[in-house]
Design goal:
alpha/beta, Rossmann fold, 6 helices, 4 strands, binds ligand DLZ, LS/RS_sf, LS, 6,7-dimethyl-8-ribityllumazine synthase activity, riboflavin biosynthesis, 6,7-dimethyl-8-ribityllumazine synthase
Amino acid sequence: MSGKGAPELSVRNCGDLRVAVIAAQWHEKVMDGLVDGALRALRELGIDEPTLLRVPGSFELPVVAKVLAGRGYDAIVALGVVIRGGTPHFEYVCQGVTQGLTQVSIDTGVPIGFGVLTCDTEEQALDRAGIEGSREDKGHEAVTAAVATAATLRSVSEP
Ligand code: DLZ
């Protein structure tokens, strides 16, 4: 089998990528952790001036991602937290945001890091928020995935 391995992720090959972070506003404490983790990951990669936009809720992430994807960004990172309540609303928001972001990414060819937590409880979300005591840091992970994919795409489009 032939083919290139994934390009190394470093300031050298990522620092000039244009990246936008879009963050919903529900569940402030978890969102603060996700945004901090995402911005930290971008700094580690030398991407010091990302665009950061806020939207009201996770349902609004796809439309903003679509507009930004048409404006020359190399990668987009979508951050949100949806926590199950007592009505079917949870399913509709989760489905809308997941399908919406998938569609935007495939239709536009711009990688989107999926940093949307869909949790049964706030405790589960806090455990993934990259704050003190969390076991996971999903904002950081979403940036790494989106930037790695953008670097891969760039490596195949250049001779
Ligand atoms: C309405 C709503 C509810 C009930 N829960 C959440 C949530 O847990 N996380 C989230 O990001 N947004 C929630 N929203 C707001 C919707 O995403 C959306 O902003 C509104 O339905 C208005 O379009």
